[in-house]
Amino acid sequence: MSIHILGTGSYAPEHVMTNHDLEKMVDTNDEWIRTRTGISERRIAAPDEATSDLATHAAREAIEASGLKPEDIDIILVATCSPDMFFPSTATLVQENIGAKNAFSMDLGAACSGFLYGLEVARSMLDGGRYHTALVIGAEKMSSLVNWEDRGTCILFGDGAGAAVLAFRPERAGGLGPCNLGSDGGLGDLLMIPAGGSRIPVTEQVLKDHSNCITMSGQEVFKHAVTNMTKTAKHLLAEAGWSPDDLSLVIPHQANRRILEAIRARVGVPEDNVFVNVDRYGNTSAASIGIALDEAVRSGRLKPGNKVMLLAFGAGFTWGGMLLEWSTPA
Ligand code: COA
Predict the structure, then answer these.
(1) Cβ-count burial of 109 within 10 angstroms (0-12 exposed, 13-18 middle, 19+ buried)?
(2) Is 112 in the pocket of ligand 1 (CB under 6 A)?
(3) Which pLDDT belongs to residue 330?
(4) Most buried of 2, 161, 246, 256 (most Cβ within 10 A)?
């Protein structure tokens, strides 16, 4: 376990949209949203704020916390399903913003599992020995993908970014441990944005029927999220020989409080050991684990030696988990 997280960062836009604000936009109410999802409010980016702007804030914080300089970064991976544009990649825009002149940069698409996929891709590249440091960012402006007339989806999502700087530090104890990733492309149509890409380009009709926005079969997604994250968690614990009680903290993708509770109960983790901030941010897709990890670090919830599990699930479907032991700060 010689790859370590040296620093984390996160950013959430200033504007808070509460459930009461949503009551004025669609036929919903605060009580329904809170009881079905656990969400009370979410952050919404300003019209002139794009995903790369959110990512840049989080990246700067993570680099500062790592003790490195932007020019020390070898790899920039931005996990997002709401890039600023098709190309250039959001990662290259961030590279320019932060002045990481010596990095190569690319985006990674695994929807809500993107940050976790990014950690594993970066770790594998660092393990190879050719690169030494990586900046992994999950960043989303989900508000730009949501149909604000669809109460089944618009209440769920929010904007934000989370980041981590990874490096090869063989002299340190702990670090990133076993990881298990999976996907099932046969279930893609249960959570998708049907139009706006090369299959169905944007037309007037597309804009009229909002098929360039998120569509979702909520109950199906719910079931698969619980099943796959539970299976992954148990698989990882068995692989590491850890018991659920060994975990100081589980940081799952923040999709829905009820999903988190179902997984927690099935895996057998004490309630206090599951990190929850979905109430304040909603589902920020690829950003959620990075934001939660940063909040856990900055609030002192993660201490050196703590055993941690990250768990993700998203469109594709994609899913995954990773174990790590929090190491001494840089
Ligand atoms: N406000 C009020 N009522 C709403 C509503 C809203 N925002 N959205 C849906 N409803 C209504 C439905 O129309 C339905 O009414 P009906 O019984 O008269 O037909 C009723 O509430 C129940 O809808 P249902 O879809 O069965 O609710 P649910 O308990 O499954 O909760 C979700 C809906 C979306 C919250 C839930 O399915 C979910 O969280 N799924 C997972 C989504 C997710 O995490 N996606 C991202 C994964 S990365």
Answers:
(1) middle
(2) yes
(3) 54
(4) 161
At residue 229, the pLDDT reads 98
Q: Ligand 1 centre and the CA of 28: distance in Å?
A: 11
Ligand 1 site, residue 284, Cβ cutoff 6 A: no
Record the tokens describing residue 279, joined without a space.
């109430």
Of all protein residues, the one whose alpha carbon is nearest to atom 8 of ligand 1 is 152
What kind and span of H or E run contains 169?
none
What is the arithmetic mean of pLDDT over 274-288? 98
Which residue minimizes the CA distance to atom 9 of ligand 1? 152
Tell me what pLDDT residue 245 has: 96
Q: Predicted confidence band at 329 (pLDDT cuts at 50, 70, 90)?
A: low
Query: pTM of the entire structure?
Result: 0.97
Q: Which CATH architecture has domain 3-168?
A: 3-Layer(aba) Sandwich (3.40)
pLDDT digits (tens, 9 = 90+) for 156-170: 999 999 999 999 999
Instruction: Kindly report the number of other CB atoms within 10 A of residue 242's CB atom.
Output: 16
pLDDT at 109: 97
Q: Domain 175-275+298-325, what fold?
A: Peroxisomal Thiolase; Chain A, domain 1 (3.40.47)
Look at residue 327 in the predicted model and tell me its pLDDT: 87
Residue at 175: amino acid letter: G
45 CA → ligand 1 middle, Å = 24
Q: Identify the residue whose C-alpha is closest to ligand 1 atom 29.
A: 36
Is 229 a pocket residue for ligand 1 (Cβ < 6 Å)?
no
Best of 36, 116, 263, 278 to mutate for ligand 1, by most ligand atoms within 8 A of CB?
36
Spatial CB neighbours of 175, under 8 Å, sequence gap ≥ 6: 1, 2, 3, 4, 5, 169, 324, 325, 327
Which residues are part of the catalytic machinery?
112, 253, 283
